[in-house]
Amino acid sequence: MRAVLARLEQEDAAERAAGLPAKDRSRQVEPTSGRLLFALAACQAGIEVLEIGGSRGYSSIWLAAGARVLGGQLTSLESDQARCAAWRKNVTEAGLDEWAELIEDDAHAALAASQDTFDLVFLDAEKDDYEALFRLARPLLETGGLVVADNVLSHVETLGAYSASRQADPSLSSVTVPLDRGLELSVVLGPGDP
């Protein structure tokens, strides 16, 4: 698993150094954010984790490895075919395919159709879609569920409103964690607005 993570970190660094546009890069979290995701997924028995935006599987590996600790499971959503192929290869190579499932579909459609319940949602998709994706994911979380949204400080011009909205919602307890590109952690305290 660590060898796959190290390879993906090297690939990401090379793509950034080459100046590839974001749409052509792996768009993965920093290793420190990955370790935090691992810790969050590892601390609950039977945790059900939903990842919105699996890309090539870097954060998926951290989340699935964490979920594996106490018998949990990761479901990852990704629509890009090339990234899905890379996701499957990387997760299998990391030895985590038993604890991780990929749904190759548009996240909006997959969330709207889902009847599943999740304990942890990791949101790392197109920044303009965060509000709509949060609204679709929210009904899939029970009280105590946690949503972690990435890039809230690196893309504050787009996601500052997302963070402000979560922090103003009395049915949530939400905090911006200034780690790497910024993470908004939002715990569900009770039912929110429909």
What does this protein structure show overall?
This protein is of the alpha/beta class and 194 residues long. It is 42% helix and 23% strand. It is built from 7 helices and 7 strands; from the N terminus they run ααβαβαβαβαβαββ. The protein has a 7-stranded mixed sheet with strand order 3-2-1-4-5-7-6, sandwiched between helices. Strand 4 (118-123), helix 6 and strand 5 form a beta-alpha-beta unit. Helix 2 packs parallel to helix 3 (58-69) and helix 5 (107-113) runs parallel beside helix 6 (130-137). The protein starts with a helix and ends in a 6-residue tail after the last strand.
Note the beta-strand portion.
Answer: 15-25%
Looking at how many chains there are and whether they match, the oligomeric state comes to single chain
How can the largest sheet be summarized? 7 strands, mixed
| Strands side by side in the biggest sheet | 3-2-1-4-5-7-6
Please give the alpha-carbon distance between the first and last residues: 40 Å
Average predicted confidence as pLDDT: 96
Helix/strand structural class: alpha/beta
**Secondary-structure element series:** HHEHEHEHEHEHEE
Number of helices: 7
Radius of gyration, rounded? 16 Å
Which shape, going by the Cα principal axes? globular
Q: Uncertain segments of ≥5 residues (pLDDT<50)?
A: none
Count of DSSP E strands? 7
Level of helix content? 40-55%
Structural topology:
Elements: H1 2-17, H2 31-42, E1 48-52, H3 58-69, E2 73-78, H4 81-93, E3 100-104, H5 107-113, E4 118-123, H6 130-137, E5 141-150, H7 156-168, E6 172-177, E7 183-188
Parallel strand pairs: 1-2, 1-4, 2-3, 4-5
Antiparallel strand pairs: 5-7, 6-7
Helix pairs in contact: 2-3, 5-6
